[in-house]
Amino acid sequence: MTNRTNWWCLAVAGLLPGLAAAEWRADPTVVVRPHEVIEGDLYVTANSVRIEGVVKGDLVAAAGTVEIPGEVKGDVLAAAGTLRVSGHVGGSLRSLGGQLQLTGAVGEDVLAAAGEFDSEPGASIGRDVLVGGGTVRLHGPVGGDVDVSAATVVLDAPVAGKVELTVDTLALEAGARVDGSLHYRSPREARLAPGARTGLLTRAEPDQPSPMGRLLLFLALWGRAFFAFSVLGVLLALVSPRFARTVPEVLRQAPWHSLGWGALALVLAPFVGLLLFLAGLALGGWWLGLISAAVVLTAIATSFPVVGYQLGQLVLPRRASSTGSRIVALLTGVGMVTLGTRVPGLGVLIGVLVALFGVGSMLLAGLRLRRGAST
């Protein structure tokens, strides 16, 4: 056996036991009861998830609402409309969703993209905070650095490290205690309450192109994305009309399952690509990893016309039934989705959600068509 084959086998051996030991749950409502203990990792897709007991490994959840009043000893990776953590997370918390409310403790880092992020006075974060969102409020102590990009930031807590902010409005309340430096980029001065203390406090003006330049740049970037995704949607309908009809049906009938499968697929995709690449190095087909990467990127790109078409169906007064009305629905939805990705502070969040819903619905549609073909 060659050295390259040894490395490939070691990679497989290192990844597969963790996946095999994980517990998988997919129900409308998933609850881990107070005296229940999950010995390994827990993967969940549901409308509602509530962890009252103990998860000794990691928690990976995709749901409308995720609540953690219990304990997760490992990391938490959640894609949810609302995530509430009132218990204890021993590792890091990584979240994508509309609202993240933290009243408990996170032992390591918090990495989040959220419309609203609230760290309440009873909360604590052991290490660093990296957040992008609309409104960010930090009232609980942070043991490391803080790096935030948001429209509004309220800091009312001790921070052991330095603070870097890109913000429109910044308020430093009386409880703010920053041991390191605080640098913020904003068009206006921060509001400092009496008692707020920081290290070196510096402010930089954001780059301000002319209004006409901003408009032209916005139109150019949005127009390019709108044209590309619209053409991709039309090509999908021409190449595989049956698949193009099934995907929106799946997305409409099972949105949260689509979100969960999309999150799972995009989490596992890098590992699968790495395994294929290592296998290719060992067996002479290194290009397998590149093909898998191309497939994932194509699926993510296709998510935009897929989700856009369903969104267009929802907002138009009549459900599209003719070819012309379907094209109108596609163009309307793609226009809305691509405009959404240009919203400051929320564009990345919207783009990631589109990818999760789109990839998941395409996976489920493929499974449905395969089952139909086998019967």
List keywords for this structure.
single chain; 375 residues; alpha/beta; 13-stranded parallel beta sheet; 6-stranded parallel beta sheet; 7 helices; 21 strands; 30% strand; globular; disordered N terminus
Report on this structure.
By secondary structure, the protein is an alpha/beta fold. Helix content is 44%, strand content 30%. The chain folds into two domains: 23-204, no CATH class; 211-374, no CATH class. It is built from seven helices and 21 strands. The strands form three sheets. Strands 1, 2, 4, 6, 8, 10, 12, 14, 15, 17, 19, 20 and 21 form a 13-stranded parallel beta sheet that branches. α2 packs across α3 (241-253) and α2 (211-239) packs across α5 (287-315). The protein is globular, with a radius of gyration of 23 Å. The chain starts with a helix and ends with a helix.
What is this structure, in a nutshell?
The protein has helices at residues 3-21, 211-239, 241-253, 255-283, 287-315, 323-340, 347-374, and strands spanning 23-26, 29-32, 37-38, 42-51, 54-55, 59-68, 71-72, 76-85, 88-89, 93-102, 105-106, 110-119, 124-125, 129-138, 146-155, 158-159, 163-172, 177-178, 182-185, 191-192, 201-204.
